[in-house]
Design goal:
Mean pLDDT: 95
Structural class: alpha+beta
Distance between the termini: 27 Å
Order of helices and strands: HEHHEEEEEE
Strand content: 35-45%
CATH class: Alpha Beta
Shape: globular
Low-confidence stretches: none
CATH topology: YaeB-like fold
Number of helices: 3
Helix content: 25-40%
Strand order of the largest sheet: 1-5-4-3-2
Number of strands: 7
Number of domains: 1
């Protein structure tokens, strides 16, 4: 998953936000601008190439206020649209440096 494709889609307003992502953003008090900023400054930390209907990835990034955000995005190469599948503030007890899952 190429993060540049996702950021280009966001900047071109070619995005869809799932109901689930919208609900999670509200629950974690995350605004769209914060989510987008975290992607613009972010990095792909996990790839899900077999996701359907489109490959997706987990992006970690920080907001301007240094709030860590994880967001899962799918990307449709055919129409160059991105879909925000879910978003959340990562739990530090589950992540090392927000990038690596802790072993259970």
């Amino acid at each position: 998953m190429i993060i540049n494709d996702i950021t280009n889609a966001i900047q071109s307003n070619r995005i869809r936000i799932t109901d689930h992502a919208d609900e999670e953003a509200i629950a974690d008090n995350l605004k769209l601008n914060d989510i987008f900023q975290s992607v613009f400054n972010g990095e792909v930390i996990e790839n899900y190439p077999n996701d359907k209907p489109y490959p997706s990835c987990l992006i970690f990034g920080m907001t301007e206020n240094d709030i860590p955000i994880h967001s899962v995005w799918a990307y449709n190469k055919e129409n160059k649209w991105s879909v925000l599948i879910t978003v959340y503030r990562p739990d530090p007890s589950l992540w090392i440096d927000w990038r690596v899952r802790r072993k259970k």
